[in-house]
């Protein structure tokens, strides 16, 4: 079954407040809760073909709020981005964000109840693990007995030691970058003291810049500042080993303390029913760690889904074959290419240029057109009109067997025009309490029935539901290049491909042009046609997306062709069934 991931930012998903005051508090702007994921909401998510829900922002991260009544220490507001805080500055890996609970003291129980509701609806749950860094004031009040906090046993007299959890600039004090919060905190700017200074998440400097991840601390995986790896080297043939062999390899090896801590963290969440993890900035920690951690996870849960945010194509195969990831972001290749085609009308030939180097790992790439880091399709910084991404989303979803992801609100054309505070328009803010207007119209007062959607938004959601539920399977076959060379009127605004199994062939034709429709006689390359168990004859076909636009496929010996008339921004899906 194709993996379809619905990314839901929990803090925002069920929030129905429309105040949207920049840097507003949760009392002013509202905040979503675990309880907002009702059966009706989950059924609406499942309508999109969803197999996995990525619950984003679940872990207890640094935030501006008073939870001392339940034993949680204050976070310094100068170490919190926005009013609500970054979900990627985790403060306690053994609990969930108290903002998200009806009863903060019972927040973990409310999260587990949500996991159970999702399972009852036949879907699985993914949460984040952020391996590269933690919040500057990390302190777990919920860890199991015998577990030590990150940094609790560090030797701070040295810059590096294998079993230190952090790196230190000995003899230097940490210096916050100078900035205005956008609201007035109750404590002075100079209230935070750190000596010796720890490395920041993306910087070794004791005085990180405002553009750095100054609110976080870099974790040490046993890699010395000069790059020396202070742990067992992997044999070259390990890329060919299965997960069981990787797991066995590490049983007799000494590993850095940070590795052990994350193994405990993963085990904790698996015990609570979580079905997989999304790894933030996975390439910023050594691939050997992923061999260790993911082999352990798979030994406990062979069906766990493990996906990684990664941007360096040279790391793809090591992180798949050695790191044992199930899926990696296809951002630098497919996403960037499709965005350029939408925004700048680049040639569709570039799709093949982006994809061909990945042909051996296609099924393990994760396709998407939106996530929390990227601009909303409908925003002023991207396509302006969500319909402009129809063909790109169709190609992204069905080009091959790769998993596909949808970000909440994408399916109704959320445009992210709000000035939330720390976050800027074009991306839905992950740092602030804010409402998500188009999505809120689908939520419709927590009825989750789309009753307040505009006709255009409702049609967009219907498109996504139809598109993501198409039962397309089988191997990708390229027919675009052949038609570019041999078919009159077929051009580089169009892209076509075949997905095939022994008994079924899907012919997919996408038109990226915003203005022009095209007509041509689409051809199947003779070398591909020769492998089809399809007798000569004429086969009536109907587009399967909306069950209209009938045409015919003709096979005459070694020549296979069909008439295609395609409108601007249209994608056609034709299915041929073999006897």
For the largest beta sheet, what order do the strands appear in spatially?
Answer: 1-2-5-10-11-12-13-14
Q: Helicity range of the residues?
A: 10-25%
Largest sheet: 8 strands, parallel, barrel
Q: Spans with pLDDT under 50 lasting ≥5 residues?
A: none
Mean pLDDT: 97
Which radius of gyration do the C-alpha atoms yield? Answer: 25 Å
Distance between the termini: 23 Å
- By DSSP (H or I, 4+ residues per run), the number of helices equals 15
Write the layout of secondary structure elements.
Layout: E1 4-9, H1 10-13, H2 26-29, H3 39-46, E2 52-56, E3 59-61, E4 90-96, H4 107-120, E5 124-129, E6 133-135, E7 168-169, E8 197-198, E9 216-218, H5 243-250, H6 257-271, E10 276-279, H7 287-300, E11 305-308, H8 316-322, E12 327-329, H9 331-344, H10 349-355, E13 365-368, H11 390-398, E14 403-407, H12 437-443, H13 455-468, E15 475-478, H14 480-486, E16 494-500, E17 504-511, E18 518-524, H15 526-529, E19 537-543, E20 548-556, E21 559-566, E22 571-577
Parallel strand pairs: 1-2, 1-14, 2-5, 5-10, 10-11, 11-12, 12-13, 13-14
Antiparallel strand pairs: 3-4, 6-9, 7-8, 15-16, 16-17, 17-22, 18-21, 19-20, 20-21
Describe this protein's structure.
- With 579 residues, the chain is α/β, with parallel strands linked by helices.
- It has helices at 10-13, 26-29, 39-46, 107-120, 243-250, 257-271, 287-300, 316-322, 331-344, 349-355, 390-398, 437-443, 455-468, 480-486, 526-529, and strands at 4-9, 52-56, 59-61, 90-96, 124-129, 133-135, 168-169, 197-198, 216-218, 276-279, 305-308, 327-329, 365-368, 403-407, 475-478, 494-500, 504-511, 518-524, 537-543, 548-556, 559-566, 571-577.
- The model has no long low-confidence stretch (mean pLDDT 97).
């Amino acid at each position: 079954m194709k993996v379809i991931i619905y990314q839901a930012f929990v803090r925002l998903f069920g929030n129905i407040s429309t105040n949207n005051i920049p840097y507003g508090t949760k009392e002013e702007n509202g905040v979503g809760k675990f309880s907002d994921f009702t059966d009706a909401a989950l059924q609406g998510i499942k309508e999109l073909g969803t197999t996995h829900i990525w619950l984003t922002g679940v872990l207890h991260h640094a935030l501006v709020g008073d939870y001392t009544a339940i034993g949680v220490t204050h976070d310094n507001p100068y170490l919190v981005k926005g009013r609500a805080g970054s979900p990627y500055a985790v403060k306690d890996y053994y609990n969930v964000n108290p903002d998200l609970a009806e009863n903060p003291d019972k927040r973990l129980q409310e999260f587990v109840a949500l996991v159970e509701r999702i399972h009852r609806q036949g879907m699985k749950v993914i949460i984040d693990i952020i391996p590269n860094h933690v919040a500057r004031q990390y302190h777990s009040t919920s860890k199991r007995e015998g577990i030590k906090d990150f940094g609790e046993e560090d030797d701070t007299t040295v810059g590096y030691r294998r079993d230190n959890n952090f790196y230190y600039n000995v003899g230097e004090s940490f210096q916050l970058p100078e900035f205005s919060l956008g609201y007035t905190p109750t404590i002075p700017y100079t209230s935070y003291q750190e000596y010796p200074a720890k490395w920041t998440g993306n910087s070794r400097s004791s005085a990180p810049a405002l553009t750095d991840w100054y609110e976080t601390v870099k974790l040490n995986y046993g890699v010395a500042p000069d790059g020396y790896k202070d742990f067992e080297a992997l044999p070259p043939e390990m890329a060919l080993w299965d997960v069981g062999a990787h797991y066995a390899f590490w049983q007799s090896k000494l590993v850095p303390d940070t590795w052990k801590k994350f193994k405990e963290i993963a085990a904790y969440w698996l015990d609570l029913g979580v079905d997989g993890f999304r790894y933030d900035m996975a390439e910023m920690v050594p691939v050997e760690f992923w061999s260790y951690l993911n082999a352990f996870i798979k030994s406990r849960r062979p069906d766990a889904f493990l996906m990684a945010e990664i941007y360096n194509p040279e790391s793809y195969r090591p992180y798949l074959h050695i790191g044992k990831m199930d899926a990696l972001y296809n951002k630098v290749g497919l996403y960037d290419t499709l965005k350029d085609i939408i925004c700048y009308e680049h040639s569709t030939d570039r799709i093949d240029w982006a994809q061909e180097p990945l042909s051996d790992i296609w099924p393990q790439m994760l396709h998407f057109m939106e996530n929390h880091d990227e601009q909303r399709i409908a925003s002023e910084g991207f396509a302006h009109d969500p319909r402009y991404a129809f063909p790109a989303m169709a190609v992204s979803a069905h080009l091959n067997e790769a998993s596909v992801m949808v970000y909440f609100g994408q399916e109704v054309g959320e445009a992210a025009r709000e000035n939330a505070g720390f976050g800027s328009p074009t991306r839905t803010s992950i740092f602030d309490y804010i409402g998500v207007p188009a999505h809120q119209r689908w939520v419709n007062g927590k009825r989750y029935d789309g009753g307040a959607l505009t006709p255009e938004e409702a049609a967009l959601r219907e498109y996504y539901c139809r598109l993501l539920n198409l039962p397309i399977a089988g191997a990708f076959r390229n027919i675009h290049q052949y038609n570019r060379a041999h078919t009159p009127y077929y051009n580089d605004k169009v892209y076509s491909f075949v997905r095939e199994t022994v008994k079924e062939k899907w012919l997919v034709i996408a038109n990226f042009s915003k203005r022009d429709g095209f007509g041509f006689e689409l051809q199947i390359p003779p070398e591909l046609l020769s492998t089809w168990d399809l007798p000569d004859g004429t086969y009536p076909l109907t587009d399967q997306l909306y069950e209209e636009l009938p045409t015919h496929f003709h096979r005459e010996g070694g020549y296979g062709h069909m008439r295609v008339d395609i409108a601007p921004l249209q994608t056609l899906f034709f299915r041929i069934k073999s006897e």
